[in-house]
Amino acid sequence: MSPRAGRAGHPLRTLAFVESPVQLLNVLEWAHLHGLRTEPDPLPGADPLPSVPAQVRRTVAGDSPQAGAGLTVVVLSPTDPMTRGQLRRMADLARDEGYRVRWEEARGGPAAPFSTIGGLAGSLRRADRIVMGDPFSRYVQLLLTITKARELVVVDDGTATMEFVAQLARGERLVRWHRKGGRPGARDLLFAPVSSSARRRLTPSARRRVEVFSSMPVTETPAGVTVTANDFSWTRARFGPPRITKGADMVGTSLVETGVVDGDRYLEAVRTLAKTHGAARYFAHRRESAEKLHRLAAETGLEIVRPDLPLELIARRGPIGRTILSFPSTVVHTLPLALAGTGVRVAVCDIDPSWLTENASPRAQGFLSGVTGTARDVHRLAAVSPA
Hints:
This protein has about 375 residues and is an alpha/beta fold. It has 13 helices and 14 strands.
């Protein structure tokens, strides 16, 4: 079936659910590849653009009768201020491209999930295709129990996509890589039936098609799953090329915040890398704590930059260093694609096993090594020796 055509030639009604800026970026990349446009009939319930006057809203959100059928993006907003800020900027870009965006305060209090799911139930049942950025999300898994869509699409949510595809291929329960190996908690056990139902729905069948849209290396393809390559063609067409500076820039990671890497070891590694390669700026990950970033600035002399968009767009707009230093993360796969043809070099530093915390998953070292080892067009740096 054509990505644009539904039954009897009618366009598919497509709902996309995103919880992070990167997920929304990759929804835009997927929609650009398939040539989608905005969904003509608005979702019932919350006003998609509450801060914009109605007469303006009809134009900005694609409410005009001339708008073609296609994609409606539902933002399941988190509470983190930096993530929310990036999501609002990405939502503006989605509207600029002609897609409808509905912002849901999905975590705005104890009753918010019930209100959000209840308000979306009708649209979920009518949707022909569901696009999601995080199949590990409990929110998304709950939504999957409602939909009758015959097409499901998973777009990149970073390196977690690699683990999702591998777990689906092996028929395992869906567990994030940095949590795997620990004993399930009470909430995990309570949610297990929903998670199992989501995994079944994400398994292709005669009645359901499943697509994975990814820039990550997919080594274990589940039977029947269509894998489509994301080459960041929308990003390259929309932004840049960037102005290249002589120095180096560094990309931050949330491995300390997720309990994988020791904070002191991480700071020492950043200090050594910055000194060795002459880095001047540190692009913070949206989940990095303010306390950690303040310490990094004080002890390394790096300028801390809090991006207002995903790094792929920041780098493409420029200015950006001729060398980008990173630890194992999504950007070692995505930045070479977004910056293709610019001459920027991406260098990745391995994680030394001594940096891992005692609470890190037993799979952490192997997974992080795999992230680095499977990256294309990057320069691999040896792990910084611990002091």
